TrEMBL record:
This is Glyoxylate reductase. Residues 24-339 form the D-isomer specific 2-hydroxyacid dehydrogenase catalytic domain. Belongs to the D-isomer specific 2-hydroxyacid dehydrogenase family. The keyword Oxidoreductase applies. GO terms for cellular component: cytosol. Keywords: Oxidoreductase. The keyword NAD does not apply. It comes from the Eukaryota. InterPro entries: D-isomer_2-hydroxyacid_DH, D-isomer_2_OHA_DH_cat_dom, D-isomer_DH_CS, D-isomer_DH_CS1, D-isomer_DH_NAD-bd, NAD(P)-bd_dom_sf. One of its GO terms (molecular function) is glyoxylate reductase (NADPH) activity. CDD domains: Mand_dh_like (cd12168). Residues 129-308 form the D-isomer specific 2-hydroxyacid dehydrogenase NAD-binding domain.
């Protein structure tokens, strides 16, 4: 009987879990019935690379969270080169996967999955909050209230500059993907005059939801609010730079809940200080959590510490979906949500 149990255990695939589980303990407990789950305890990248040759040398699947980067560093070409030959997939807990190099993984025939769609509602809700807050100068008013300036100045709204309503304004959406379309749907009831968008290619009309496809230059020149929803990769790093900001309409509002790295923050601060960009709503910044305090302390910036998916319901669903990806691998050999860069590859 003991031998049979040992044989049964040894035939189970091994899952290496990087990062903590907040709410999906039941899902992981179910997974442990069909897989051996080991939790990474390597304190830093150097030790993790060593452990990949030792105690983690026979893992079949790896799951990872965004914060686990503090233990392993980026899943770049160097780290991928150290992965055991047994690894078949990396399942990332997040829609954005800029911490992981999907092309490097392809060189070792390793699948990469992410968590699309489940993050859309929470991220879009956050985007709408930031957009309306930045449009109405709510951050400046909030700061004045906290500093006791209302009692000092004895003026309406504590002397906060008069802002704008949505009516008559054009929203330009850069990246009308799933999250961009969700944002568009949520913004429509507020009475904006027009929605335009720019993607690398125009979407089918039934996915545009009334938004007009325009060139990027036209979007930058005509939009009162610019909504940023593009992934971070080698092509989009500092996509919004001095050149793009100079083409924006005077007094534009910029909102970003995608990734901080798509914005050149040095140029961004310059245009925010000059007033060319009137205000900004940001949930993401470069070098998180070591963010540029000059940027987030500007009175015309409404900033959050990456809270787009920071809700119980969304976190739980995301964690459970990672487990579903692993189950799919065990049962079919394929992840559910293969990232776009790998979809042409025959695994």
């Amino acid at each position: 009987m003991l031998l049979r149990r040992l044989m049964s255990t040894s035939t189970k695939p091994t899952v290496l879990r990087l990062g903590q589980v907040a709410y999906a303990q039941e899902a992981w407990a179910e997974l442990e019935k069909i897989a051996n789950v080991i939790v990474n305890d390597s304190p830093n990248r150097e030790q993790f690379l060593q452990d990949l040759k030792g105690k983690y040398s026979n893992v079949d699947y790896i799951t990872r969270t965004f914060p686990s980067v503090t233990q392993t560093g980026l899943f770049d070409a160097e780290l991928v080169s150290h992965l055991p030959e047994s690894v078949k997939a990396v399942c990332h807990n997040g829609a954005g996967y800029d911490q992981v190099d999907p092309h490097a993984l392809l060189t070792k025939n390793i699948q990469l999955s992410n968590v699309p769609e489940l993050v859309d509602n929470a991220t879009a809700d956050t985007h709408v909050f930031l957009l309306l807050g930045a449009l109405r100068n709510f951050n400046a008013g909030h700061e004045a209230l906290l500093k006791g300036e209302w009692a000092q100045v004895r003026k309406a709204a504590a002397g906060t500059p008069v802002a704008n309503d949505p009516e008559g304004k054009t929203v330009g959406i850069v990246g009308l993907g799933a999250i961009g379309r969700n944002i568009l749907s949520k913004l429509k009831p507020f009475g904006f005059k027009k929605f335009v968008y720019h993607n690398r290619n125009r979407l089918p009309e039934d996915q545009e939801n009334g938004a007009e496809y325009v060139s990027l230059d036209e979007l930058l020149a005509t939009s009162d609010i610019i909504s940023i929803n593009i992934p971070l990769n080698k092509h989009t790093t500092h996509f919004f730079n001095e050149e793009k900001f100079s083409k924006m309409k005077q007094g534009v509002v910029v909102v970003n809940t995608a990734r901080g790295g798509v914005i050149d923050e040095t140029a961004f601060i310059k245009y925010l200080k000059s007033g060319h960009i009137r205000s900004a709503g940001l949930d993401v910044m470069q070098n998180e959590p070591d963010v540029n305090l000059e940027l987030v302390n500007l009175p015309n910036v409404l900033a959050l510490p990456h809270m787009g998916t920071h809700s119980f319901e969304t976190i739980k669903k995301m964690e459970e979906f990672v487990v579903e990806n692993v189950k799919s691998l065990i049962e079919t050999g394929k992840v559910i949500s293969l990232v776009p860069e790998q979809k042409a590859h025959d695994f």
